[in-house]
Design goal:
Structural class: mainly alpha
Number of strands: 4
Helix content: 40-55%
Shape: globular
Order of helices and strands: EEHEHHEHHH
Largest sheet: 2 strands, antiparallel
Number of helices: 6
Distance between the termini: 20 Å
Strand content: 5-15%
Length: about 120
């Protein structure tokens, strides 16, 4: 993968995804593509999905807060919707997350501070 001419290995990208996922607050949700864009790789939504499916359990990440851009939850993870509902995430009548009401949208300077803080304290 390239970002401004810099190659990034898949595993390194996954760890960046994990670090950012850990920052998603309770009651908020984000799309795979949005996470990719926040990391500077707007065309890597599927790779974010791969990272989510391979997330180490010992990290205790809130992977359930990451959904498709249209609010669909993971098709082979029926517990995801229950976890989101337990956090008060709103759903539309079609069973999709209402991202208009609960999308996590940190400001760029806030995101930068969060990422730097997380890196300094957890090593993720």
């Amino acid at each position: 993968m390239e970002k401004e001419g810099i190659f990034l290995a898949r595993e390194d990208f996954f760890w960046q995804v994990y670090g950012l996922t850990a920052l998603i607050p309770k009651g908020k949700a984000v799309s795979y593509g949005q996470l990719a864009a926040m990391l500077g790789y707007p065309r890597r939504a599927r790779m974010v999905g791969q990272a989510m499916s391979r997330a180490p359990a010992f990290l205790h990440l809130p992977c359930h807060r990451v959904v498709a851009s249209d609010g669909r939850t993971a098709p082979h993870w029926p517990e995801q919707a229950a976890l989101l509902k337990k956090e008060g995430i709103p759903f539309l009548g079609n069973g999709r997350v209402d991202l208009e009401k609960c999308r996590w949208q940190p400001q760029p300077e806030e995101l930068s501070a969060l990422l730097n803080s997380k890196k300094d304290h957890t090593g993720i």
